[in-house]
Write a structure and sequence with these properties.
Elements lengths: L10 H8 L3 H18 L17 E7 L13 H5 L30 E4 L4 E4 L3 H4 L5 E8 L5 H10 L9 H9 L9 E4 L25 E2 L18 H16 L6 H25 L6 H7 L7 H15 L4 E6 L14 H25 L6 E6 L3 E2 L11 E2 L3 E6 L7 E3 L1 E2 L6 E3 L2 E2 H11 L8 E4 L2 E4 L13
Parallel strand pairs: 1-7, 1-8, 4-12, 4-15, 5-6, 5-7
Antiparallel strand pairs: 2-3, 4-11, 8-11, 9-10, 13-14, 16-17
Helix pairs in contact: 7-8, 10-11
Length: 472
């Protein structure tokens, strides 16, 4: 065979080498037209669910760092009886990051009481949340695969232990779109104390189109900057500028079509937010009684209270998924109680308990709780053994999370850990089951919600998850 003759090896080479001259020009022209046409479509338009949906939106109250199950929603009297003793061998082995082999069991100083008609035991860390317990389904048998923050946070949000995969917020918007054209479809409100170990990738869209990425809000009274029109610029002038940018973009064949389309949508959304978002983001028009309900304006609840109240206003305005993070920055600024479980959890609970309860009560009285799924929890729990005397290490074998609203049957506990809170032994539920249940309440089927990536149909639940039937 002559050297200059060879077979094309793949489809890309066929398109590149097989079409030449006018054929290549025609192909480029066609791609431009298709791209311009696609830029005018709205991938965030509301979409019908796969089946009857109980929930329309999700608020995830992310307790970053890992709240302790035995200090919160899973009382263990035997743990107190065995305080200061080695773990009995019948409870099996466990791997930790920092707990030493000769560590002793650590009892809790927390007091548990029964609340509500359901009589569920709740720690004195959460007196306000306890008032809502009849609306809450406590999952006492959660477990994950990783015992380090970053990997566990990735798994909690994306179902994988490595970055690069879409978060549950992005999957939700990919499946259902948004009910608002003037607000982001997916919002994350980080803790003002700083970033977490997994960083922004755990919230991101992964391989999904860039239009499904989250919008990151700031803490404080101005969660979004530059919402006001520049001085001397009218609304009509800003509209003309945006139209010009759109036309220039649509006439350009960008190298990355995904980012190209997302950029156009971002300009459109920014313009609409300048007209409508300021009213939604301004808490000044809330009555004082509502501000008091969330603990806004007083410490230590002001910051988390503001963000929980804003979460309610966002879902009320059609935002599909909101994540409100408690804990940020290094170690003890999260629920990461390595040194002193009492000091850490008393502080973190005092910042979040009233705002969380205020959110549940406010959603309920407004008729929004039935259609808003609220999820509470962290990336793992804490060890029954002591670390350094009065702290607790990371622990992924058994811990507590809870769900409320969105068709969830409250006033019950599901599953159990063993007598010292070491391991989930009754109806253990993995993160993938949490994801599957969330999708189910949103009317989405875990298999139907898929995306072809590198020749494989990917989904949020890498391994098939189970709907937690007891609570739906």
């Amino acid at each position: 065979m002559p050297e200059h003759v060879r077979f094309t090896r793949n489809r890309r080479e066929f398109i590149r080498d097989g079409f030449c001259g006018f054929g290549a020009l025609a192909l480029a022209s066609m791609l431009r037209r298709e791209r311009a046409r696609g830029a005018n479509l709205n991938p965030l338009a509301a979409k019908p669910p796969h089946h009857n949906a109980k929930a329309k939106s999700v608020i995830f109250l992310f307790m970053a760092g890992g709240p302790s199950q035995v200090e919160t929603f899973d009382p263990k009297p035997l743990l107190n009886e065995l305080h200061g003793q080695p773990r009995p061998k019948e409870f099996g082995e466990a791997k930790y990051q920092f707990v030493k082999e000769d560590a002793k069991l650590l009892g809790t100083k927390r007091v548990f009481k029964k609340y509500g008609r359901s009589g569920i035991e709740v720690s004195d860390l959460f007196p306000y949340t306890a008032e809502c317990i009849d609306d809450i389904a406590v999952l006492r048998s959660c477990h994950g695969d990783m015992v380090v923050h970053s990997a566990a946070q990735y798994e909690l949000f994306t179902g994988r232990i490595v970055p690069g995969f879409p978060s549950m917020g992005s999957w939700t918007v990919f499946g259902l779109g948004s009910e608002s054209e003037s607000l982001p479809s997916y919002v994350v409100m980080p803790d003002p104390d700083g970033a977490l170990e997994a960083g922004q990738p755990m919230y991101m869209h992964g391989f999904l189109p860039a239009v499904y990425q989250p919008t990151m809000f700031r803490s404080g009274t101005r969660p979004v900057l530059n919402l006001d029109l520049p001085q001397g610029v009218s609304l009509d002038q800003r509209r003309e500028t945006l139209d010009l940018i759109r036309k220039l973009n649509e006439q350009t064949l960008a190298e990355d079509e995904d980012e190209f389309g997302a950029r156009i949508k971002a300009y459109d959304l920014a313009f609409k937010m300048q007209m409508e978002a300021p009213e939604v983001l301004d808490l000044g028009n809330e009555p004082q009684e509502t501000l008091d309900l969330y603990g806004v304006g007083v410490e230590p609840t002001n910051d988390y209270g503001r963000r929980c109240l804003l979460a309610r206003r966002l879902v009320e305005s059609g935002v599909r998924f909101v994540c409100v993070v408690s804990g940020g920055g290094p170690g003890n600024l999260q629920w990461d109680a390595h040194k002193d479980i009492e000091e850490n959890h008393l502080r973190m609970a005092s910042e979040t308990d009233k705002p969380v309860a205020g959110l549940l009560k406010d959603l309920k009285r407004r008729g929004l709780l039935d259609e808003t799924l609220v999820l509470w929890g962290g990336e793992f729990g804490r060890s029954p053994e002591a670390q350094g005397g009065v702290g607790r290490d990371h622990h992924n074998l058994g811990f507590s999370m809870w769900m409320a609203g969105g068709g969830i049957k409250g006033g019950q506990t599901v599953g159990a850990t063993d007598a010292i809170g070491l391991r989930a032994i009754e109806k253990p539920y993995h993160f993938r089951d949490i994801h599957t249940t969330m999708l189910h309440q949103l009317g989405l089927n875990q298999d139907g919600l898929s995306y072809l990536h590198m020749g494989r149909k990917e989904r949020l639940t890498q391994v098939h998850g189970r709907v937690i039937s007891e609570i739906v």
